[in-house]
């Protein structure tokens, strides 16, 4: 498993979980701007420099992988932040492990029959307006392996993962949970965020007007301010 750790040795643990087709580097803009914390960023199996699973994974397999990794790293009751697919893993993790606080960015939780989440996630990954502001760095990392150029194992994995409805797990999360969402998110529409907020015991939603599925990057300074207040 590939991961990096940096930041304050004495700070609270923050674990950052990237979206589908992404890697550690996509979460570094967050980690780099939270200097008072001990930051851990992972590459999920099949992404970045972590090797592919031997057989296709379900969301439960990814959560077990994360549970084992955090035990190994001696990280207990972390603050977890997840984008998109990483947020889905975070929902399930937080429903069954102690978590200090949870932050979800554009993390589709509820499965709606009428629209294909897989299609939406992949559309959300394509080139985005406003991305030029983030420079070549972000462009190179967004939408690297999507469904078409994913291996058969990762394709099967994607299908298994997007078909899972996580509503019942969201209802079990006890820690304070902050949803940060772009109002123009097509991969995880803002209505889903409002619905997710209503399921949470202790949830709040911040809507970022005009931002897309990558709202956390598009409005980075604002997002860091919000996080500093929440944490």
Structure notes:
The protein is of the alpha/beta class and 231 residues long. It is 39% helix and 16% strand. The chain contains 10 helices and 7 strands. Strands 1-3-2-4-5-6-7 form a 7-stranded mixed β-sheet, with helices on both faces. β4, α3 and β5 form a beta-alpha-beta unit. About 10% of the residues have low confidence.
Write the layout of secondary structure elements.
Blueprint: E1 3-7, E2 13-17, H1 24-31, E3 38-42, H2 59-72, E4 79-83, H3 85-96, E5 101-105, H4 117-125, H5 135-141, H6 152-162, H7 167-170, E6 177-182, H8 190-199, E7 203-208, H9 215-218, H10 220-230
Parallel strand pairs: 2-3, 2-4, 4-5, 5-6, 6-7
Antiparallel strand pairs: 1-3
Helix pairs in contact: 2-3
Give a quick rundown of the structure.
It contains 10 helices and 7 strands. It is an alpha/beta fold and 231 residues long.
Shape: globular
What's the N-to-C terminus distance? 28 Å
User: Would you tell me the structural class of the helices and strands?
Assistant: alpha/beta
The main β sheet shows up as: 7 strands, mixed
- The string of secondary-structure elements, in order, is EEHEHEHEHHHHEHEHH
Mean pLDDT: 87
Give the fraction of residues assigned to helices. 25-40%
Q: What is the radius of gyration computed over CA atoms, rounded to a whole number of angstroms?
A: 16 Å
Percent strand: 15-25%
- Tally of contiguous helical segments: 10
Residue windows where pLDDT falls under 50 for at least 5 positions: 124-145
Order of strands in the sheet with most strands: 1-3-2-4-5-6-7
Q: Using DSSP, what is the number of strands?
A: 7
């Amino acid at each position: 498993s590939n991961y990096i750790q940096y930041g304050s040795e004495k700070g609270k643990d923050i674990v950052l979980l990237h979206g589908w087709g992404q890697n550690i580097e996509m979460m570094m803009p967050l980690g780099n701007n939270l200097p008072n914390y001990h930051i851990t960023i992972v590459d999920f199996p099949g992404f970045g420099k972590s090797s592919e699973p031997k057989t296709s994974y379900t969301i439960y397999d990814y959560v077990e992988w994360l549970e084992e990794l955090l035990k190994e790293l001696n990280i207990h009751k972390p603050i977890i932040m997840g984008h998109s697919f990483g947020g889905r893993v975070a929902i399930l993790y937080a429903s069954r492990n102690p978590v200090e606080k949870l932050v979800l960015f554009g993390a589709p939780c509820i499965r709606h029959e009428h629209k294909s989440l897989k299609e939406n996630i992949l559309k959300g990954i394509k080139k985005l307006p406003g991305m030029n502001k983030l420079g070549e760095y972000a462009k190179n990392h967004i939408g690297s392996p999507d469904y078409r150029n994913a291996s058969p194992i990762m394709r099967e994995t994607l299908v298994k993962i997007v078909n899972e409805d996580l509503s019942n797990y969201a209802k079990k999360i006890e820690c304070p949970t902050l949803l940060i969402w772009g109002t123009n998110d097509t991969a995880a529409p803002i209505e889903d965020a409002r619905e997710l907020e209503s399921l949470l015991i202790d949830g709040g939603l911040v809507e970022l007007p005009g931002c897309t599925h990558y709202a956390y990057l598009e409005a980075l300074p604002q997002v860091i301010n919000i996080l500093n207040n929440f944490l």
